[in-house]
UniProtKB/TrEMBL annotation, chain A:
An annotated GO cellular component: NADH dehydrogenase complex
Entry EC no(s): 7.1.1.-
Top EC class for this record: translocase
Protein name: NADH-quinone oxidoreductase subunit K
Entries under NCBIfam families matching the protein: PRK05715.1-2, PRK05715.1-5
Source lineage: Bacteria, Bacillati, Actinomycetota, Actinomycetes, Kitasatosporales
Source organism of the structure: Streptomyces flaveus
Stated family: Belongs to the complex I subunit 4L family.
Gene Ontology MF annotations: NADH dehydrogenase (quinone) (non-electrogenic) activity; quinone binding
From TrEMBL, chain B:
Classification via NCBIfam families: NDH_I_L (TIGR01974), PRK06590.1 (NF005141)
Any one GO CC term of the record: endomembrane system
Key word Cell division present: no
Subcellular location: Endomembrane system; Membrane
Name this protein carries in UniProt: NADH-quinone oxidoreductase subunit L
The species this protein was found in: Streptomyces ruber
Pfam families: Proton_antipo_M (PF00361), Proton_antipo_N (PF00662)
Domain NADH:quinone oxidoreductase/Mrp antiporter transmembrane, residue spans: 135-417
Transmembrane segments: 29-50, 87-106, 118-135, 181-203, 209-227, 248-266, 278-299, 372-394, 414-432, 483-502, 522-544, 627-645
Record-level Gene Ontology MF annotations: NADH dehydrogenase (ubiquinone) activity; NADH dehydrogenase activity
All residue ranges annotated as the NADH-Ubiquinone oxidoreductase (complex I) chain 5 N-terminal domain in the record: 69-119
Superkingdom: Bacteria
Keyword rRNA processing: no
Amino acid sequence: MNPVNYLYLAALLFTIGASGVLIRRNAIVVFMCVELMLNACNLALVAFSRMHGNLDGQIIAFFTMVVAAAEVVVGLAIIVSLFRSRHSASVDDASLMKL
Amino acid sequence: MENLIALLVAAPLLGAAVLLCGGRRLDAVGHWIGTVLAAASFVIGALLFADMLGKDAEAREIGQHLFSWIPVGDFQADIAFQLDQLSMTFVLLITGVGTLIHVYSIGYMEHDERRRRFFGYLNLFLAAMLLLVLADNYLLLYVGWEGVGLASYLLIGFWQHKPSAATAAKKAFLVNRVGDMGLSIAIMLMFTTFGTFAFGPVLGRVGETGEGTLTAIALMLLLAACGKSAQVPLQSWLGDAMEGPTPVSALIHAATMVTAGVYLIVRSADIFNAAPNAQLVVTVVGAVTLLFGAIVGCAKDDIKKALAGSTMSQIGYMVLAAGLGPIGYVFAIMHLVTHGFFKAGLFLGAGSVMHGMNDEVDMRKYGGLRKYMPVTFVTFGLGYLAIIGFPGLSGFFSKDKIIEAAFAKGGAEGWIVGGAALLGAALTAYYMTRVMLMTFFGEERWRHRATASPDQPDVEPAAEHQGAHAEPHPHESPKSMTIPMIVLAFGSVFAGAFFGIGDRFVHWLEPVTGHEHGHPPVSALTVTLSTVVVLLLGAGLAYLHYGRRPVPVVAPRGSLLTRAARRDLLQDDFNHVVLVRGGEHLTRSLVYVDHTLVDGVVNGTAASVGGLSGRLRRLQNGYARSYAVSMFGGAAVLIAATLLMRAV
């Protein structure tokens, strides 16, 4: 099977994730979309690794997973505390940082 | 002997320091300290003079190098003195007349509680003036020049509780600053042209420089001289300077200050000789001032202001002579010395009259004082005869020589300048006779003073110890005041003959200033005779006006010229309209330009940046999703750009 197809799939997943981040208001969904984008990247990296015949892409994918895990921990903690204080998980409600 | 030169300056400087820093515990002896130190300076001067006379004419110049003041690379400023015949003449005049004025002030300022301070300032004045004439370079001369300006400011405003005195001091200082600018520019020009400002190198290398530069330097020096010597157009401070105590006026007008300008021109003779255009300007300034001062002197009723006009006029003679070049330098200095004697004597006499008349200065309220003040009358009278150039007295020898030299200038110029000088001699005779008649002759107008209206409230005396309207009891002044007047009267009578007969003064000064005998188009005898004739005419006219007719106590309205002359020929009005108003308009238009153009650009920039920021601020709306859009948009643009660059 042609590895380029994996890249198409990765691009499709990334686009879905990105539009989700931009469109959805629910913080949990936005967060999931971010994860989707990360995984799309991972897929692309692994595909590149296969296409070039070396392991660089796979190693970077591992790093991405570690970073994603850390990000989930911090991000979920923020969302939970935000929900506790404001009783809402909408990202648009948290718009205090403006002039 | 060289080492004594610094002491000349140091003695009065020490006096000034001790008296001004010593505090009240010196009040009782302050005047003696000041007088003794001034006299010490005179004695040192006399010793140096005796030493100088023992040498050959060419070997008389001595110098003393004290220390390097500012040695920076090529820039060498030294504290160094030079004593030649010209400086010597000034040293003797300054310390001699200065000491007499110190002695006189002991009596004159007896009732002033700030007498110690007054003597401190007098000593400072002497020290600064001595520094000025002894310096061997223009920079040190400038130090003395500024010192003289400072001391004159302090002394003119000595009675600072009077607003008029404070204003007069400020005026003198400000007008002098204009002249000082000229001197500083001249020194800078000298430094860029010659690389030094010591007299020797600068004056010795005049020939290597173009006439344009020299003319510029000479004109700047003339501006400086105009400021200090009260020549047109910077003459306006002199009349107001009469607000100071009378000994100060005597000091300023006879020994220090106003003579500095003449000294500067004669000292820079080589520069002026090489710049004939500048010399012509000097002559014109001198001629204009001598008539200006004389006309003002004719109209003033204030005895000191009449004498001030006369000083302006006599200094005009000196500047005129200095502008004539080598035929005039010696006579300028000779007139300066004789003028020092008789003008100091006249001022001290005027002070003595005021002393006896409750500080009244209006001559219309004098009259018939010769009976009450015989010594003052005789000494003042001798000074009067000397200043009008009565044959045989000092002024005759010096002024006559200047008039001769003016005619000897040659051509139409010579006739015009000589004519002006002759006319000046007639006017001098007129206004001095007027002063003499109004003060010492005629009816005793001060007796009716109680009924006279105080028409000039600004010259009313401060009346410290006596009521302002009490009838004065004219009396002769104490010995400390009359003795200096007698000494000066001797000078006024004999100095001219001593200098003039056998050309003694010419031979004395010739090695420094150079001298050429002028050849007037008419014989010297004719000039002398016409001088005598015009002075008799002037004096006779004054007798007709003020001797034969009674003098009204209240000044008559007078002709247009008289009224203008009373207002110093509208000098202050001119300054006000042209300089003050002009300056105001200039600043106002500058403020307008500043507000519209400069502020407009600055404010416009600020407003447009502010407006743009206001628009950009909308982007910062706090919605995380809109920030995300920006990020994605930016990333997309970057990627697109990268791809595009790759493709190209």
